[in-house]
Amino acid sequence: MSVPQDVADLTDPSDLVRRAVEDGTVPGAVLITGRGATGEVHTSSYGVTASGPSGRSVTADTVFDLASLTKVVATLPAVLRLADRGELGLDDPVRRHLPAFRGSGKDQVTIRHLLSHTSGLPPHRDFWQLPGGPADRLTAVLREPLEHPPGSVVQYSDLGFILLGEIVARVTGAPLDSAVRDLVLDPLGLGTVRYLPPAEWRAHTAATEAGPDGEPKWGVVHDENAEGLGGVAGHAGLFGSAPDLAHYLRTCWLSEGSVLSRRMRAEALTLQTRGLNGARGLGWTLPGDAWDHMSPHWPASGAGHTGFTGTSLALDPVSGIWVVLLTNAVHYGRGARAKTLRRVVHAAVARTESALSHGS
Predict the structure, then answer these.
(1) DSSP conformation letters of 76-141
(2) Which of 82, 235, 287, 320 is within CB 3.0–4.6 Å of 158 for a Cys-Cys bond?
């Protein structure tokens, strides 16, 4: 992506997204920005849902594969709601809910460790290549040994969130997709956010990467492990539109009418990894972490998350600014196509909102 050398000169986030589409960085994108739960919202959309004749123009309501945004839009709030209701504790040992989670050091792993990516579990394993079905792959996740003692290292782990999804299912006695719908999506009115989107959504869904047959995925989760778990998992599998994600940030994290208690929201956005090699809240990435896509211009009190397909969220509970950026960058391949775009967009939003707050 071609961007100005001095990001301090950037004042129009939507122009940056338009340019990224025009120069082929991403096929399509939707950007929504705003301040607080009730402030003015700015929406822009560009590009196409896929290259070639099958692609359609992206609109604000285009549905995207949210990839790892699943962690903070589905799994995190589901766990926090259960904690608010006293149905689990953040410092519960994982084995209390998943007795099959056994092995050296695993007795000390807590739900908080999983949420803050300090469990000691590895980042990723290709469970989708194992024989059998979703239950066999989940068993393999439960048996995976730790790479580090719990609480000693920040290591982003899909495995930890797969386990969190299973904890939600076990505690509620319902499949994860049903539990997330009942705990999070329906109470917040997120009608376009769901696992396993129906076939009729394909016409307004952004395509992801082509498979071995040369056909891109439409409405089928891009993440192979999530697909191997039946399309529903704690780490990936969610689909949704930018307006609903904006609504999620505003109502769940920036509104007094949230489905989460003020105490639980504050805990999730508070640094959990002091003295370690990363900056993590519960679920959320904080400024200074290796996966931070917001700094250096975003407020230090902010938080965010990214998704492998080219998606990202960010918010700042102090100033109230927030950003939803959804792209299907992975349709063009697995390079880090959205990385620079995210940083310059957040720089531009932070600068613009700072100028507005000072009356410039």
Answers:
(1) HHHHHHHHHTTSS-TTSBHHHH-TT--STTGGG-BHHHHHTT-S---S---GGGSSS-HHHHHHHH
(2) 235
